[in-house]
Amino acid sequence: MGRALFAVHANRSLASRVSNRMTLPARTVALRCLQFVLALLVSGAMWCVCADAAADGPESSVRILIGFREPVKGDAPHLISRLEKAAGAPIHYVASVSDKRHAYELACPARSSCAQAMRSLQQDPEVADVSSDAMRKPLPQVR
Question: Are 127 and 68 a contacting pair, CB within 8 Å?
């Protein structure tokens, strides 16, 4: 009986040594996978920071919608020059949405100055509202 008990105990310790040896490579693989995922996350975050810094670089542009209190011709040169003077930045006509709402491209030295230019345009007495023009993407077709 004593010999059988010793054999079971010896087998358990052998099994634990084998399992420890088997888990070591698995742990190493898991650690390497974790390192790889973290490296991807860090590089992705670095890319986003660099892209954001580039967008806020020397010149940034944003599409805006300007709603007027009265119907106006959106591409009239005198209107565009008045809007540029109010904004303090170049403005380019893009399209008309209606006779009172038009889309423009606002070119600014930096993204933060675009927000300031939009606030300045809002102060014009003929302007009812100014908003950023978010580009819409069409929905995928369902078959």
Answer: yes
pLDDT in tens, the chain (143 residues): 555 544 555 555 555 555 555 555 767 777 776 676 666 665 665 554 444 444 445 567 889 999 999 999 999 999 999 999 999 999 999 999 999 999 999 998 876 788 889 999 999 999 999 998 876 655 666 76
Q: What residue spans define the domains of the chain? A: 1-55, 60-132
Sign of the CA dihedral running 36, 41, 44, 49: negative
- CATH code of 60-132, in short, is 3.30.70.260
